[in-house]
Amino acid sequence: MMNIYLEIGSKRIFACAADWLGWCRSGRSEEAAIQALFDSAPRYAAILHAFQLDFEPPASA
């Protein structure tokens, strides 16, 4: 379980991980933004592991 927040604009919605600075993705709907956030978890994990920071990507949205 992780905390996320949404920034809702007129054309795009951003889903961001509250506890992980810089981990945000956008979509045209809330569902699309959240899915994009979770789909990017392996790339985000690779960056954090390169800096020896512990991060376990969530299993699913």
Short description:
The chain contains 2 helices and 3 strands, in the order E-E-E-H-H. With 61 residues, it is of the alpha+beta class.
SSE blueprint:
Layout: E1 4-8, E2 13-17, E3 24-27, H1 30-39, H2 41-50
Antiparallel strand pairs: 1-2, 2-3
Explain how this protein is built.
The protein has 61 residues and is an alpha+beta fold. It has one domain. The protein contains two helices and three strands; from the N terminus they run E-E-E-H-H. It has helices spanning 30-39, 41-50, and strands at 4-8, 13-17, 24-27. It has a three-stranded antiparallel β-sheet. A hairpin with a 4-residue loop joins strand 1 and strand 2 (13-17). The longest helix has 10 residues, at 30-39. It starts with a strand and ends in an 11-residue tail after the last helix.
What would the keywords be for this entry?
three-stranded antiparallel sheet; 33% helix; 2 helices
Approximately what portion of the residues adopt beta-strand conformation? 15-25%
Cα gyration radius (Å): 12 Å
Work out the count of structural domains: 1
Low-confidence stretches: none
Order of helices and strands: EEEHH
Mean pLDDT, all residues: 87
Structural class: alpha+beta
Report the total helices. 2
Q: Sheet bearing the most strands, described?
A: 3 strands, antiparallel
Q: Give me the side-by-side strand order of the main sheet.
A: 1-2-3
Q: How far from one another are the termini?
A: 10 Å
Taken from the alpha-carbon principal axes, the silhouette is elongated
Q: Give the total of beta strands.
A: 3
Please give the share of residues in helix.
25-40%
